[in-house]
Amino acid sequence: MKEDKTMSKFKLITDGLVKNNPTFVLLLGMCPTLATTTSAINGLSMGLATLFVLVLSNMAISAIAPVVPDKVHIPVYIVVIATFVTLLQLLMQAYTPAMYETLGLFIPLIVVNCIVLGRAEAFANKHGVGESALDGIGVGLGFTCSLTVLGLVREILGSGSAFGYNFIGGHDGMLAFVMAPGAFLCLGYLMVLFNKFLKKN
Amino acid sequence: MAVKSNLINMVAVLGLTCLFCSGVLGGAYVLTKEPIDKAAAEKTNKAISQVLPSFTEVKYNEADHYYTATDGETLVGYAIESTVVGFGGPLSLIVGITPDGVVYNTSVLSHAETPGLGAKCTTDAKFMDQWKGFDPSIKKLSVKKDGGDVDAITASTITSRAYTLAVENALNTFKEIAGQAGNDEIVMPDSDRASNEGGQDNE
C-alpha cells in the first residue's frame, strides 16, 4: 500500500516529463518555446522560470480552489498566476540582472502560457497541495528539458556552440537555425523523434 | 469542488484575492527596489569604466544624456549615451570620447538585434575592437560598403550601419559639449548628417 503511494507520486513527476510532456506531446506554450530557445542557456532559464511559477501557482490554486466560486475561478487563477510572474520578474531584475536582460521580454508572457493555466484547470483544482506541487515539478521539468534540448540543438546548428562554448572557432554556423524558421524545423524533427521513441516503449 | 456562485461570494473572493496579491506585490516591490537600483547603477558604472580610461568621479548631464568623467581636476573624457533604430528595435550605446575627439571605446547598453546576426555587435571582437582609438579625423565614419572605414559584422550591415550612426551621433554631441565649454581647439570632420543626439527611449 505504502509502496503504491510512493509509486504514484513518482509517476506524477515522470508523467509530466514524458507522457504529458508539455512541448512535445501537449504542444502547449509554443510562443516562449519558439522565441526563447536561441541557445541552450536561454531555453534552460526560461524553463526554470516557468517551473517556478508553475509549482507555486499550482500549490496556491489547489489550496484556494475549494472556496472559489465557480463563475469567477478563471479571473482568480489569472490574478494568482500574474502575481507569481510579477514576483519572479522583480526577483530576477534584482538578483540576476544579466539573465533578466535576455529573458525580460518573455517573462510577462508566462502569465498567458497555457501550460500554467492548463495545469491549474486540469489538475490543481481537483487535487491536494502536495500532489499539485509534484505535478508542477513534473510538468515544469518536462518543459525545462524540452526547451534546453531544443535550445541546444539550435545553438549547435546555428551558432556552432553548446552552452556558450564555441567549438567551431569563431566561424558562422547555419544562421537559419537561430531564427524563427529554424525554430519550427527543429521543433518538428524533435517532436518526430520524441514520439517515435515514445511509441517504441 | 467549487462553491456555487452568488454575487456576494464572487465579489468577496475576487476582491480578497486581488487585495492579498497587491499586498504581496507591494511588499516585494519595496524589498527589491534597492537591489534593482543598485544593479542598474552598477551596470552603468561598469559601462562607463569600460569606455573611458580610469577616472575618479563621474557627473551625469540629464538633459543631453552624457557623463563627464574626471580624475581629480583633469578631464578624462565624456561617456555619451546614444540611441538609434537598429534592425530589431532601439540600439543603445555608450560611447567614450577623450577630450581630443578620439573614441576611446564603445559598449552596448541595450539592443534587440537578431541573435546570431546583429546581436554579434556585443560579442564580435573584430567589430568591437575597431572602435578602440577610432579617430574620426583620420578614418571615415561609415561602413566599408558605403565607402567608409568601418568593418561591418558579416551579414549584419543594417546593425553595423546603426552602430556607426550611433557613434556619429555621440561624436556630434561631443562637438556640442566641447563647443559649449569654449574649447575650439578640437577639430572635427564635417558630418553630412544632422546632429541628432540620442539617449532617450532606453528600453
Describe this entry's structure for a reader:
The complex is a heterodimer of chains A (201) and B (203). With 201 residues, chain A is mainly alpha-helical. Chain A has one domain. In chain A, α1 runs parallel beside α7 and α7 crosses α8 (180-200). Helices cover 70% and strands 2% of the residues of chain A. The longest helix of chain A is centred in the last third of the chain and has 31 residues, at 129-159. In chain A, 43% of the residues are buried. Chain A has eight helices and two strands. The radius of gyration of chain A is 18 Å and the shape is globular. A two-stranded antiparallel ribbon of chain A has the order 1-2. Chain B has 203 residues and is an alpha+beta fold. Chain B has a domain at 52-180. Chain B has helices at 7-51, 125-129, 157-180; strands at residues 57-61, 66-71, 74-85, 90-97, 103-110. In chain B, strands 1-2-3-4-5 form a five-stranded antiparallel β-sheet. Chain B is elongated and about 80 Å long. The chains are: A mainly alpha (201), B alpha+beta (203). The interface between A and B is medium-sized, with 36 and 30 residues.
